[in-house]
Records
---
Amino acid sequence: MIDEVQGSMSVFMVIYMISHLAFAQGFYFISLASKKKKYQFATSYLTAIQYSFFTALGEYSYYPQFEDSRNSMRWLGMGLFMLCCVLTTVVMLNLLIAIISDKYNEVSAMAHLYMY
């Protein structure tokens, strides 16, 4: 049972990491598109990955540059930030629960084969 759940979890982790890399790329491009240097919050792709990961962990006070009304990328940045918050927390958690419950149902249906 553990092996089957672990196989499904590896698929989930690949999907989860792809979503983080996609959001990191979005944060990086928004940072590069900002005209002023003080609004460029992600100076490297690694920093953008950190922003995406910390957003998924619930670090919401990490984005003061989106609150400044003089930032031309403010609305796009806040939209991407909100989408990242919702997608990485709610949708991915539901996907994880669905994968684990599906594997549990498959294993419990075949329980007579796994008994010694």
---
Amino acid sequence: MGLLILFGRIGDRVGLPITRAKTPNLPANGVCSTGLIFNYVLIDATDAGATGKEVVDYVFKKAGVMLKHFAPLRGRNGYFRISLGTHEENSICVQFIKQFFENRKKEKKA
């Protein structure tokens, strides 16, 4: 299971893919500094077994945070986007996205 994470600037045609599978030198915390400035994160949760809509709906229901999901693209239905906010807003968003996947993992074990 994994997430494909793309960083980009609104108006760009191509984001910068950052994944552990495709970037073996990525630090353990999964953060890579490129020196570039981004204003959104596009995440594909398809390989983790979730749709973008499921993640977006969960985060909105639990935290009131609005994210954007996308219609399926090339057979992949897990895309959702986070527009960057303050440190506090970003932390809340990440906390509830993690919670979504932790709960999903527990449900599959049961």
---
Amino acid sequence: MLTPRQAEVVKFAQRGLTAKEIARQLGITVIFTEHDMQVVFAVADIISVLHQGKVLVEGKPERIRDDPDVQKIYLGEQGGIAAAAARAEKKTATVA
């Protein structure tokens, strides 16, 4: 038996809404862990980047994408994070 809140989530999912859209409809926060930057940039409104158990930087995807420490520590200095963000934005624009 589902709780009323769970039933509401199922109803939205059956209508084909994404997790992000469901969260907005219900006014809830969703926390998830993901290492694929394409997914992160496509889904997250706010990103927290952890390094060695501490928050390195937190903010909107644009801030994370442009942060030199994030680029250096996680993606090398070749700007890989910017490329991942551009692919995610293109994918999101294509879906929308």
---
Amino acid sequence: MTDAVCGASGGPLAGPARLVTTWAARQAMAQVQNAAAVRWWHDVGGDAVTFGSDAHDPAGVASRFLDDAHLAEAHGFRPGRDPHDFWARID
């Protein structure tokens, strides 16, 4: 996970969102880092998460998306109605 907090471009969630990266060369380490960061973001009141990929080849783009989507759901975030929406906090 990157340390970036992304600014929303408008819509129902106009505040920052935590970026979850969906590919990393050290995938096991990335999953631990993503879990800690998403848990922290939820604990400090973060409203949303979004996903991105830092893959350096097309085959790696979003290769861990399902794992990271489950991780976000486990920490209280759900997808919006539109596939391009941020995943909003549900509690």
